[in-house]
Amino acid sequence: MTSPYELPVRDILAKLIAFPTICRTENAELIDWAEGFLRDLGARCHRVSGKEKGRFNLFASIGPDTPDGVVLSAHSDVVPVEGQPWTTDPFVLTERDGKLYGRGSSDMKGFLACMLVAARYAASQSGLRAPLHLAISHDEEIGCVGVHSMLRDLAARGFQARGCVIGEPTGLRAVSGHKGKLAARIVCHGLAAHSANPDRGCNAIGLATDMVKVIEAVQEELKETGARDEHYEVPYSTMQVGLIRGGVALNIVPDQCEVQFEMRLLPGIDPQPLLDRLCVEADRLCSERPHARIEIETLNTYPGLHTPDDSSFLHEIMQITGDNAPSRIGFGTEGGLFSEYLDMPVVVCGPGSIDRAHKADEFILPKELQDGVQFVEQVVDMLVHS
Prior knowledge:
The protein is of the alpha+beta class. Helices cover 32% and strands 24% of the residues.
């Protein structure tokens, strides 16, 4: 492979984008390449397998083995491209009209490329007093499910650091908080019958409709009387239904209907009481209808992030970014999990814009990529002067 000392950040990004690491698929080839890159720099690398074959997390360290280092973190997976009207090959980094197009360019292989440049910069520093750590995860895009095995491994080994930067695209603004998320499925079971005599059946879609009304009522309570944080664009927790599937034919009373919904919860809000309330309402609805049964299943969940405004690590990052105050964001990251597992302050800060993520013709500007390199190199400078 080409020496890591010879690759500019744009070429690194091109290499990363060429790996089609769609969520729920293997990322082994990308991890192999990144690990080889890092080992050539002298990094200590530790690979942690995921639950599924061919999916891995990678943790690497450069510098002394001390507890005062900084973690730079990125996920390796990207969202699918099927059905999107791309005008370029999504897995070939393409420069056009002053933009660098490719799936993951902003979310978040752009920052992953910057991380590898940071590792190269750290390896070149003879006076590194604290370590630089790199964390690369899988399957973040489906509910932050892949990073757990790496964080459990680090926690079991007693890993410590002064803080972590999650490089999701924030326009290089220092972000100290985001909401948590819980995604769940409600499966309503009824009894099939001919539509000419619907009373002989139990309409599962009707059950599902009633559960949707319950969710809407809880949402209204969260909005009107729940906890608030005016730092967020939507300053309260939310619940919303995003998918309903049910019925076989118009002349059959449906015996099954599925509803999927999500909660977006302010940091510190426990989803369990809300789930318990839905279960109580489900039991009530079933008690009123013979043959009715309702199941509620959590699909995935991750906690919100709240790094206190007086965090010294947060202020170190803000000194680099020039922010006078930290921001909050509406989308989720792995940051809350890093904070919970490893008890460390976490700041979300990376190049690019989330507004370009998950869309056709995703791009990052060359200047944003270079600004990202400058940012991570200044983080490394913190470790030189620790």
